[in-house]
Amino acid sequence: MGFGKSKSRFCRRDEPTRCALKRMGRHAAGEDPVKRRQIVEGAREVFMNVGFDAASMNDITRAAGVSKGTIYVYFENKGELFQTIILEAKQLIFEDLRATLNAEGPAEDILKRFSARLATGMTCEETVKAMRIAIGVAERFPELVRSFFGGHPENLVDTVSNFVAARIETGELQAENPRLAAVQLLELSTGHLWKQRLFGLMDAPPSEAEISEMAENAVTLFLSRYSART
Question: GO molecular function: any one (predicted)?
């Protein structure tokens, strides 16, 4: 069963019933945010400790402190649970990065902050563990990897491309292909450190000094090609 489905058969309710339950101060099945969070946090603990294949729904029920039937009210299978965790991790990282790019100030200063925050998010322990798990099942469940790197409106390449295009309009940057420029900035900012972490060549997240140095050099190289003032 694929991971594209967002609702299980247990979540279907007619709208009048849903509204009536909310008026009574109760949540319809599958709509209690506290219970849902409890399940997600339990699943996160299990996945991060034993990986995707070794994780069982029984393990998740014990970690979450709920019944298996309750889990199936909210999630169709453990694949959907893991995809939820992947997307939440992505959202946390990307929301901060989008806010960084939307700040006021010179392009160089913004890009240095962006580069440092990107490297920090991509090399933290939870992101690295999640990506290792996703890569391990990528051939069987490619949508898990696409959930993080997919080409939809929240894709980070599009966000950086829009920033580059906007700064071309202000005369700070120049690029015939803003999307290519965006890809190159992302690779400069994360490629080395993230790969070192991903493949176990760096046991702990890089220090703040290492990330700062990488960000400085990444943006300097980027601007040597794309600054309109060069």
Answer: transcription cis-regulatory region binding
